Amino acid sequence: MNYWLMKTEPSVYGIDDLARSRKKTDHWDGIRNYQVRNMLRDDMQKGDLALFYHSSCPEPGIVGIVEIVRQAYPDHTAFDPKSKYFDDKSDPNNPRWLMVDVRLKKRFKRIISLKAMRSNPALTGMRILAKGNRLSITPVSAQQWQSIVDMLA
DNA sequence: GCCAACGTTGGC
DNA sequence: GCCAACGTTGGC
Q1: A18, A66 in Cβ contact below 8 A?
Q2: Does the nearest atom of strand C lie within 7 Å of A45's Cβ?
Q3: pLDDT band at A149, cuts 50/70/90?
């Protein structure tokens, strides 16, 4: 059982969208980075938990918790020429890109802002806080996870 | 809108 | 395989 942090732009797809979807479950498409794909494929398991992070918005930060409810499977948007995630080099017989399904578990009453995270010494070393980090999904240690949960209190 | 940082591409 | 050029990300 692993912990993760998953980034998304709320103007594209935010926690409100997930909350509105059927059974509060949706697929996480559009991953087009090999490092992230490999983590998804090799390390992410059904039952894992992830922090839901809003980026590129007025107040970046963690807004909730999701559970991985389906392991990695082909990202169909790569095969759709009308999708902005279309990739003509992804062969349906040997898909290049993968996605998982997530279910909303908890929606925080207030955001744990990026600012608050930076000012918490227990979170030093979190990948999301590292300079130049560009991965949309990053691993979170059990200790970091607990520190985040503690910040809710 | 700026810009630092990093990934990807493609010529050689 | 190197590396310059380009594209993207994301906080500010």
Answers
A1: yes
A2: no
A3: very high
